[in-house]
Specification:
There is one protein chain. The protein is of the alpha/beta class. The chain has 2 domains: about 1-125, Rossmann fold (3-Layer(aba) Sandwich), CATH 3.40.50; about 150-305, 3-Layer(aba) Sandwich (Rossmann fold), CATH 3.40.50. It is about 35% helix and about 20% strand. It has helices at about 10-15, 20-25, 40-45, 70-80, 100-105, 115-125, 170-180, 195-205, 220-230, 240-250, 260-265, 275-280, 295-305, and strands spanning about 1-5, 35, 50-55, 60-65, 80-90, 105-110, 155-160, 190, 215, 235-240, 250-255, 270-275. The chain has a 6-stranded parallel β-sheet with strand order 3-2-1-4-5-6. It has a 6-stranded parallel β-sheet with strand order 9-8-7-10-11-12, sandwiched between helices. The longest helix is centred in the middle third of the chain and has 13 residues, at about 170-180. The termini are far apart.
């Protein structure tokens, strides 16, 4: 009987945040655990050495199954998977459906307590001594993932995420990048997702730059994207996967937050910092477009030279 299987079908950055819980279930790398998740996430899975990546349930029988989201697909795969124990641990606010109680003898939805979501997963999976929480960590990407950028020691700018509501304005991005160039911060390598609006957002920024950025928005595979983050001197991004991956690589990163919860989605360190719009403008849960560019420029300069 195999040790544990984890089922998870949320977003890419959420999977990175799950790494400490996966490590704990693997007993600090002494076991290998199976991870059933989206097929496109295989590159991230390969950077977690104690994880065996799967996209569908197998015929194996496990000691324990852990599901970390409320999606129907995850519940269905949990139903199909054989395990002596089946646990559902979801975020407060997620909905528990009638079928969850039929699949999972144990359903956990503890008080979040304003914890970093990565620590929330890690803390509530097993009883007994927790030890000390260690932030998400990924192994270095292989050289084969390299994207042929001409720049080195670059500032990686990733101005989009999966949610358009997290966008900062092209004008403020351009002003920020132009001012950073005046302080000797650059060159800039810019990435984005594959959606048309994400590419257009990056193009609108680049049209206003005084010095051209190396814009590869929408041109990278996930492997390339991970490599670009790994090789950056610093990363400037909105709340999203680039922020979580950069932190897991211990890369300098400044993340811009608007209405999303920085307390739950960010862990402040010397190398990973956040600017929260609500803190700057004095109104909580403010949209990112209200964030002025001056504090972003100042924080990036300090991080770059720190």
């Amino acid at each position: 009987m195999s040790h544990s299987v984890v089922i998870f079908h949320k977003q890419l950055g959420d999977l990175v945040l799950l790494e400490p819980a996966l490590r704990r279930l693997a007993h600090g790398n002494s076991h290998t655990i199976d991870l059933i998740t989206r097929s496109g996430f295989q590159p991230i899975g390969s950077l977690i050495p104690f994880v065996k990546f799967r996209t569908r349930p197998s015929a194996k029988c496990y000691e324990a199954l852990w599901c970390f989201d409320d999606r129907r697909k995850s519940a269905f795969y949990s139903l199909l998977t054989r395990a002596r124990e089946k646990h559902l641990l979801i975020n407060p606010g997620a909905s528990i459906q009638w079928y969850h109680s039929r699949i999972f003898p144990t359903i956990l939805k503890p008080d979040h307590g304003r914890l970093y979501i990565s620590e929330y997963y890690w803390k509530h999976i097993l009883d007994g001594d927790h030890g000390s929480f260690q932030a998400p960590e990924l192994a270095p990407p292989p050289k084969e993932w390299a994207y042929p950028v001409s720049s080195s020691k670059y500032l990686h700018v990733n101005p989009t995420s999966g949610w358009r509501s997290k966008n900062w304005t092209p004008e403020r991005w351009a002003t920020t990048i132009n001012r950073l160039a005046e302080h000797g911060i650059g060159p800039v390598v810019m990435t984005s997702g594959m959606q048309d609006w994400q590419r257009k957002h990056c193009a609108a920024i680049c049209r206003q730059l005084t010095q051209p950025a190396e814009c590869i928005a929408g041109e990278t595979t996930l492997e390339n994207y991970i490599w670009v983050i790994w090789n950056a001197k610093a990363v400037l991004t909105v709340d999203g996967s680039a922020s979580h991956i950069a932190a897991a690589f211990r890369r300098k990163c400044l993340t811009l937050f608007g209405h999303t919860d920085a307390i739950c989605l960010h862990r402040e360190t010397a190398y990973s910092q956040a600017l929260v719009t609500g803190d700057v403008v004095g109104r909580q849960s403010s949209r990112l477009h209200l964030l002025p560019h001056e504090p972003v420029i100042e924080a990036t300069i300090k991080l770059w030279h720190g």
